[in-house]
Amino acid sequence: MDSEESDSPQRVCNSFSSRCRYLFCVSGDFIKVYSTATEECVHVLQGHQNLVTGIQLNPHNHLQLYSCSFDGTIKLWDYLDGILIKTFTVGQKLHALYTHARAEDAVFVAIKKEKPDVFQLVSVRLPRSPRQDVEAEEPCLVLGYISPSPKCVAFGSQGEYVAAVRDFYLSVYFFKKKATSRFTLSSSGNRKHAKNNFTCVVCHPKEDCIATGHKDGKIRLWRGFDDEKKYTYTCLHWHHDLVMDLAFSATGGSLLSGGRESVLVEWRDAAEKTKEFLPRLGATIEHISVSPAGDLLCTSHSDNKITIIHRNLEASAVIQGLLDIVQQEYINDYGLVQIELTKAAFGCFGAWLATVEQRQEKEGELELQMKLWTYNKKTQGFVLNTKVSMPHEDHITALCFCNAEKSESPTLVTASRDGRFKVWVLADDSDIYREAVGWTCDFVGSYHKYQATNCCFSEDGSLLAVSFEETVTIWESEAWELRCTFCQRAGHVRHLCFGRLTCSKYLLGATENGTLCCWNLLSCALEWSTKLNITVMEPDPRSENVAAVSRSSGGSDLFVFKPSEPRPLYVQRNICSEEVRWGVFVPRDVPNAFTSEALQWLNRSQFYFLTASQSLLTFSSKSPEEKLTPTSKQLLAEESLPTTPFYFILGRHRQQRGEQADGASESELVQLPLTENVPAISELLHTPAHVLPSAAFLCSMFVNSLLLATEARSAEEMPDDVAMEEEEESDSSEEEGDATEKAQHADHTDAGDDLQQQLSQLAKCQEKELRKLRRVDYSWVTAP
Amino acid sequence: MGEFKVHRVRFFNYVPSGIRCVAYNNQSNRLAVSRTDGTVEIYNLSANYFQEKFFPGHESRATEALCWAKGQRLFSAGLNGEIIEYDLQALNIKYSMDAFGGPIWSMAASPSGSQLLVGCEDGSVKLFQINPDKIQFERNFDRQKSRILSLSWHPSGTHIAAGSIDCISVFDVKSGSAIHKMHVDRQYMGVSKRKCIIWGVAFLSDGTVISVDSAGKVQFWDSATGTLVKTHLVANADVQSIAVSDQEDSFVVGTAEGTVFHFQLVSVTSNSSEKQWVRTKPFQHHTHDVRTVAHSPTALISGGTDTHLVIRPLMEKVEVKNYDAALRKITFPHRRLISCSKKRQLLLFQFSHHLDLWRLGSTVATGKHGDTLPLSKDADHLLHLKTKGPENIICSCLSPCGSWIAYATASRFFLCRLNYEHDNISLHRVSKMPAFLRSAVQILFSEDSTKLFVASNQGSLHIFRLLEGSFKHLHTFQAQSGTVESMCLLAVSPDGNWLAASGTSAGVHVYNVKRLKLHCTVPAYNFPVTALAIAPKTNNLVIAHSDQQIFEYSIPDKQYTEWSRTIQKQGFHYLWLQRDTPITHISFHPKRPMHILLHDAYMFCIIDKSLPLPNDKTLLYNPLPPTNESDVIRRRTAHAFKISKRYKPLLFMDLLDERTLVAVERPLDDIIAQLPPPIKKKKFGT
After folding, report:
1. pLDDT winner (highest mean) among A115-119, A283-287, B104-108, B358-362
2. Is B269 on the interface with A (CB under 8 A)?
3. Strands of A481-487's sheet, edge to edge?
């Protein structure tokens, strides 16, 4: 069993399907297909072995999608069904992908040359071959020395030129002239031009106009660039920090730009004075994409969110958004101290969320805010309930809800460096206008003016443990009375945790000097202690197990143990090389039954942990084979056929068969094949229409397959068909099948039967052909 | 270079007048600039943007329009309702003519240059025929409701567009009737609800009318249908001026925010003939309103309230990227406004309507190199001499002895005698000027203050002898036969024997003052003379030209000196030739005959003729070598041009005595501080 990366930050390059119904987004090795209407992830296209670096709609067939990846392949997908149609192997790491309608069957990719940081734009001809795995032809160079960023290359509207930017220059390569024009901005050391660097480039969909974004926030619109002397540009300047991405609207009437300000700017008529804004988008805009029909835009953000925006600049949907806690304008400026969200906790089984944000400009000028959010079932989101400014005089070190089931009112405890812990309870806050509840402070406790370092409720909520530097104090939650104290003199207590279920009499404490102590609450004595430098300690709510992650020189180690015994149940050394910041047990809906002793701790809950690099990792119980769902398996034929003209044909056919079956004697050898089982028909019905060859081509085959074969299909042939459902089937085995059939048919001598035989065989051959055809590139079939 | 005690004078609070109009003449490559005080200046763009001529202003002649007509004739019109033609040879006003339509706001010469159109306050557009000697009223066009602020001819000369308040009218020239009236939206994106003033119109040959207005819009109209085609909102304030290039592929507009926008006609796609106007580059070279713009084939020219004349070359039109392709900003006049009395340490400052006489401060302290010495006696404002009448002062001079002041306006010549009695000064005006001495272009006193030389605007040179409180006409050198060109520059030799005079184009004439006859003429050079001086003892005439060439001509030998030939052979350092401003003053060190002292607005230079000339590889602007460096290196790097850029903008610099210099600076910030506040613009991050 190994740890599996479940959700890495998405490297989003998004694009829309032709009719704006789907949105594509690259996430690690996968491409996610979202519905723009419901924000639902419809498909996950998986098959790449490495990071996907670029996606583009097939310009010749808008129901297909090209993707390229670091694994050196270009894949063609049918995104409606989530099927991999073809794989072209290039053999080099591909850094970006571009297509345009004028390039017949070539796509453009960015590859890296030997030297570091030198990238080239090359065109790759994708050969038309019936096979599914195709070796792409040798790439041919278009532009050298381009930027590694996919945003730094753009193709002109008619595919007549390609523009690439890097550092301080813009190069435009004209395909017809086979010449490159290069325009350099002054980069001289003077302060004014120091940030002239290009950051992105887009081309106007109708006119000969190139828009470039710059590091100083300027946007330049280049015109007349076919003449290296007469070129001219217009400057648009609103962004104060670098322009992250640019996009032209579908008609070219307006230009969209975004950057760190988290404001989407629309420049109408590309004029400085006629701009519109969509502010407060939450985080830096990384990508902007415009749907081909022009009615939708989408922006992807640095906080892993995609916003779908209507053409009238109204955000219509958010995919995977984060909750805005601070609820203030984000001012992006270098050297500015921002508000930091420092603590957050869920309570009362998800009904409440407590957050703490702080901002400290100078020593002693601390701004603290605690916010309590209630979950609204109707909107499926958290709504701000109470805002407490300066809940403590100093940093809040811990936050903990009482999660006991029997507790009548929700209770929250905050511990702070100001030497106090405060108990907050939900109280009635109604006035004459409305009925409301709000949080108020119920109790303030302290212990010898020591700084409170952590706090923890026991499972039943009856006891509260608060650590004050080296001392742990136990308070009774009924009357908030101090019951007893534990002191180990082993450094400040950093983590506290009560045991669960049968181990509820134990209290665990981890100190910053690397000692883990377990106290018995009944005897008020130390049960055991061990040396362990714990960074994360988390109890499993469904079992007695406690997971602790310790930091060692090699990386982070995971220990799972029961408080009752100082011997770990499970040890996983080096779960990740970096520091683990947080860990949590998520209860399983259906308990797993792992038989192996080492995994039994995962039976009731799944353990997730977050690393310093913001990777959320978990333990997966599936074998690597199971994890890979072959794309072929998704090619499942639907059982119920829709009422189409085909259905009526087939329905009638079935009726005929029924009549015949009635009329014919049971002894008759001729067994009609079920229409559903005729591969040609099922193939025809289940293959998406856009990948099929022309109707004229299919017609004869289809009609033939409907003809009644007098000969029953031999029992051996049926499994052959089933086997062929799987894509892994090799050509050689198919030929083998052919050979056996021929051998069988050689036995037949009857001439009348022979014709029928011939027909049925023809149908079979054609079925095979049809099957092959499915793997051919049908890019010439353009979607209506 | 030697060490000098420098009087650093910053109390010359000269403020140039704001620029109101510019008019570019393509044939002669000259630019006429009119200022708000009525002054008209002529710049020769071929001669390194040298201001070669100027016409003094007049209080009542606020120029509102300026244009060139056929045959290099320059016309202006103003709020006094008069049309004025200037005599570019004699440097005076040829005639002025009332248009009888109230104040004139606009004027345009027809494409053929034979007709002149003026737009008046009463809403009338008047057509004048330009005859060889005068202009003649031809007829009125249909009168409009309000004043005509802008006019433009269709290149074919058949139609005109006139911008008024809230509307643009298109007239047919033949019938004189308005064929279209296009109303301009007052409010655009909620900017303003006030009247929309059409500050400028331009009629293109395809029938498009471009208008700029007070709501910040640049609009394109179809004159055939009278409809609006496109609007560009370029500013939050007024767009005040527009100029179209001759090819009609680019135009430029100036806004009240100080920004100049360039519009270009670019093709929509490379393989279609469809073209569109695109706003390309903004230029922010001005702090105040850009009242006027001009479009020469290679440059955008703009001027405004902030008094700068900015010439911004268009890079795509420039063939070679040499120094001519650099931006020029002309702020100060290319002539001297200051004269100095070495004996009494007096400075005379010339303003448009008054003269100021200052006595320099003095110090008893001493210090080492670079020290600022404390003043023991502050500079003294001795005299404030106001002219009578509305005319501006053309030129002024203070005699070297400090007891005479002479100045001239367009119609009168004044000579005053100063008497110093301890701290009291008494001014006594010399009355009874001779009738022929009505005006002057340049005035000069001889070194011993006994002779007065006056260059009149008829091309003649008068010599007067000055005695205690009285003066006597000695002689008049008449202009060379056939020319009426005025002499703009005068120089007299320290011994008083030689007088050199130079006009704007012909060569320098040297007169023998004793014998009262023309001694010789220095061969004419392509570029105008910017400064003249005659060296003591050797009587070498040093001439600086606007292309930064310097010649030394020996008057007794009637030929160029050996040094002058050497430097012509070797050529000047390229950085020397690339300087922006002309040399405005040349002087000599009384004890070091090998030194020539000269300055322009940004540097002061001592040419040591005994040292080797710099070539292009040597460092021209070398700072003073540090003393710890070995003598060998210092000697090897030493060359004839010792340049100091410490004082700038430098309006005047002269040697008071062997060890004392006086430098008059006028910092640009001080000028801006005296201008009206610019339109407040929110600056990001403030």
Report:
1. B104-108
2. yes
3. A452-457, A463-468, A471-476, A481-487
Average pLDDT on A561-574 reads 85
pLDDT tens across A668-711, in order? 444 444 444 556 666 666 666 666 667 777 777 777 776 766 55
Distance from CA of B258 to the nearest CA of A (A): 16
Q: Which of residues 461-480 of B touch A (CB under 8 A)?
A: none
Name the residue facing B268 among A208, A271, A272 (closest C-beta).
Answer: A208
- Work out the average pLDDT over B627-653: 75
Of B601, B10, B9, which Cα lies nearest the Cα of B345? B9
Q: Does residue A224 belong to the interface with chain B, where contact is any CB pair within 8 Å? A: yes
Q: Is the pLDDT assigned to residue A646 strictly greater than 70? A: no
Per-residue model confidence as pLDDT tens digits over A196-245: 889 999 999 888 899 999 998 899 999 888 877 788 888 888 998 889 99
Q: Is B267 on the interface with A (CB under 8 A)?
A: yes
Q: Phi, psi at residue B18, to the nearest 5°?
A: -70, 155
Q: How many other CB atoms sit within 10 Å of the CB of residue B627? A: 7
Residue written as token pair 């002269």: B654
Whole-angstrom CA distances from A549 to A570, A581, B22, B37, B373 are: 12, 9, 79, 84, 75
HEC secondary structure over A64-104: EEEEEECCCEEEEEECCCCEEEEEEECCCCEEEEECCCCCC
CA-CA distance, A565 to A543, in Å (whole number)?
A: 14
Q: Could you report the per-residue pLDDT of A37-52, keeping only the tens digit for each?
A: 888 888 888 888 888 8
More confident site: B65 or A381: B65
**CA–CA gap between residue A737 and residue A746 (Å, rounded):** 14
Q: What are phi and psi of A107, to 5 degrees?
A: -120, 165
Look at B270 and A272 and tell me if their CB atoms are within 8 Å: no
pLDDT (tens digit, 9 = 90+) per residue, A391-409? Answer: 898 889 999 888 877 667 8
Q: Is A160 on the interface with B (CB under 8 A)?
A: yes
A232, A267, A272, A331: best to mutate for the B interface, most B CBs within 10 A:
A232
Query: Kind of pairing, strands B159-163 and B150-153?
Result: antiparallel
Measured in whole angstroms, the distance separating CA A746 from the mean position of its chain's CA atoms is 56
Q: Which residues of A touch B266 (CB under 8 A)?
A: 223-224, 232
A222 → chain B, closest CA residue: B280
Q: Looking at the complex, does the CB of residue A93 fall below 8 Å from at least one CB of chain B?
A: no
Residue A536 bridge partners (DSSP): A549
- For strand A94-98 and strand A556-561, is the pairing parallel, antiparallel, or unpaired? unpaired
The answer, for B281 touching chain A at a CB cutoff of 8 Å, is: yes
CB of B270 within 8 Å of a chain A CB? The answer is yes
**What pLDDT, on the 0 to 100 scale, is given for residue A2?**
35
Residue B48 pLDDT: 86
How large is the C-alpha radius of gyration of chain B? Answer: 27
Q: A275 CB near a chain B CB, below 8 Å?
A: no
pLDDT for position B625: 52
Residue B316: which of A157, A230, A235 has the nearest Cβ?
Answer: A230
> Parallel, antiparallel, or unpaired for β A169-174 and A305-310?
unpaired
Q: Which residue of B has its CA nearest to A268?
A: B232
Q: Tokens for B46? A: 């071929």
Q: How many CB atoms lie within 10 A of CB A277?
A: 12
Give the residue on A whose Cα is nearest the Cα of B217: A273
Q: Hey, is the C-beta of B265 within 8 angstroms of any chain A C-beta?
A: no
Residues of A in contact with B232 (CB under 8 A): 271
- Residue showing tokens 């443990």: A465
Note if the bond before B649 is cis, omega within 30 degrees: yes
Residue of A nearest to B320 (CA): A229
ipTM of the complex model: 0.81
